[in-house]
Amino acid sequence: MTDVPVDTAAATAAASATTVPEGLTESEAEELRSELSKVEEEISTLRQVLAAKEKHAGELKRKLGLTPLNELKQNFSKGWHDVQASNAYKKTQETLSQAGQKTSAVLSNVGSTISRKLGDLRNSDTFKSFEGRVGSLKSRVVGPGAQNGAGEPNSPMEAGEGTPQDKTPF
Hints:
Layout: H1 8-17, H2 26-64, H3 68-85, H4 87-122, H5 125-142
Family: Belongs to the TPD52 family.
GO cellular component, one term: cytoplasm
Protein name: TPD52 like 2
């Protein structure tokens, strides 16, 4: 739609100056041109009425304090509500919820299995043998009762302080 008024009289005059299409008599062509002119005038009138109604609606909204931003928020909220009420959304939500529950159960099982396997590994003879060798290697390198590189004992027990729980301030 344009806001530029159309001069229907000039348009009709230009149309009547053209030749008559094949299959129409001069009177039929004139009747169609007249009808076209009336329809174009109605369109012009309707555009003017619509513009006046839009202006009036804008004034009412302004008086009510409705801003374009508020309208956008309301439209968005209504649209989101409509989406949530749709069957497709409900089915998708249900499917994703089930998938999440199944994934959670699988991950829980995997975590339990890994913990159990690590416990089994730690209790195995091979791991205990490896742990013993690392311990003896450490004592050979560091020496029994030796201090760490900072000049401090390796543990509170070596420092003669007892257990770490014995050193609580309260």
